[in-house]
Design a protein that fits this description.
It contains 25 helices and 7 strands. The protein is of the alpha/beta class and 592 residues long. The strands form 2 sheets. A 5-stranded mixed β-sheet has the order 4-3-5-7-6.
Amino acid sequence: MPDSPPGATVADAAPEAGPEAPPFVLGGPWWRPPTPAGVLAVGTLALVILLPVRGLVRATGSSMEEGFMLLFPRLVQQGWIPNVDFLHLYGPGSLHVLAIWYWVFGDSLESQRVFGLLQHVGIIGAIYTLTRVWGRAVALIAGLVATFLVLTPIGLSALAWHGGIALSLWAIVFAVRARSTEPPRSDRSWLVAGILAGLALSFRPDLVVALAVAGLWVTWGLPGRRRVAIGAAIGLVPMWIHLALAGPVRAFEGMVIDPVFRLRPGRELPVPPSLDRIDGALQAVAEGVPPWWGFPALAARHQLFVWFFVTIAIAVAVPVVAWVRRRRGDVDDRTTVLMVTGLFGLGIISQALQRPDSTHLAWVAVVSWPLVVPVVHDALRGRTTAIVATLAAGAVMAATMFVVAPYYTYRHYLLHTRVAVGQLPPPFLVERDGRRFWFGDYFVGEASNQMVADLDRLSSPGERLVVGPADLRRTVYSDVAFYWMFPELEPATYYIEMDPGLADAEGSRLADDLLTADWVILTNFWTGWFEPNASSEYGSNRPNEVIADHFCLVGNYEDALVLLYRRCAEGDGVSPATIGDRPPPEGGPPPD
């Protein structure tokens, strides 16, 4: 085996099935008869994953992010092109895969969340497989750490990030496997690693730095690099199709210029997080009526502050530990796993640096934090027994999450588990023709149900719809779920997803799009949105003027929480837009 990077030490010979065979990541068989210990470890992990699932399936959804993961794949099925017909800031891969999934299983909320659960299981399973090198007990604890981090920040939403991370981690699994076996099986594993890495990039192109760094290290000096490149080209097929359909200029603008340069001023948060308040608007709303937590804990804002630094420290420490081990001559498979996975975890650190809210911190921690378990295990292994070292490693991580981020890990897991077992009621349901969406506020749910009933009664198939915030000078968020609930109405704007600096920019096409609409839904759900970034600034007023000049107010629900407008017919009296009902704050945090 090659000397640099480190080669395998426990799988030089072709493995045979049985209890002594090496784990899959080191070239073990694709399938082996289950052992009692294996059943116990995997069964325990599966039970912890499944306990809150019933609650998560009925959990409050993110009406924009989850809404567009419900809507966009259906638009792709109809021939709409991302970056041409609608704004989409990520790769096309997740939309293409979900379009196939919805074609088979339907585009229901439950179907989408099952797919999201599978993405989460993909991450947890990859962490378990990678850390299996240290034994089943260490792998189980590492998988449990990943579970508490992956299930809590966004529930079961099938976001592209989690799909990209799952595919990337399995690419690492196959790359490590390829290093640990002799040809010809290693050739096949290198190819699979490349295909998975290419698919990951088609989900989230911004994973390119992390995958490149990890990939260059694991393939350095090995003939497998060519196979990986061929596989990556195959895995990137969704991207090649998208470039052909959208054109390279439109695609580059939509996936690079818009998210990196135009959007960032309106979405980035202070680094480090503020000590005196929660900077992220969505987290501030969630903490307005927080779930039960009867244990001692830092304040939510202080948890985010500490979590940020601990996340950065762990992401840096894991590959440093692997490097130190190599310098000491420890070049076994465990060091390889730590180095490759640790480099990938370090490569995604930009997510925590650009927007250090609970979601993005968890997105980074889910890769690096589980690796602390084998690091602590190895540090103690020479001083005590394997059982004590394993239990101590688990205790370190359990205590770390309990001190650093219990609100964003244990508390949300407990909340959804209590809903799952019937101890707490689910949130507030909005439903139309079997299309269900859950909101976290009673009055928001009431207003939405009333509006949905009126629009259902008054609209006709083929008419065009725009959904946005009540004051279109600040497009901080958009309740895309309403588009999805009316599949017979055509979205009338490129800015189905609305973001500050894009939809509300001077010269954007939003006002012209509104002129083509028959119906407009404006919500005051997010009028109290305040973040210390450019999202608090006002943009173009022209879309508001279009509403005032060309649309008549049809319904005002729950004191303007939702406003329904119809294009005025000739001779109709025009009702001015109710923009001033709940004006945006000039400064300060969102109201309680």
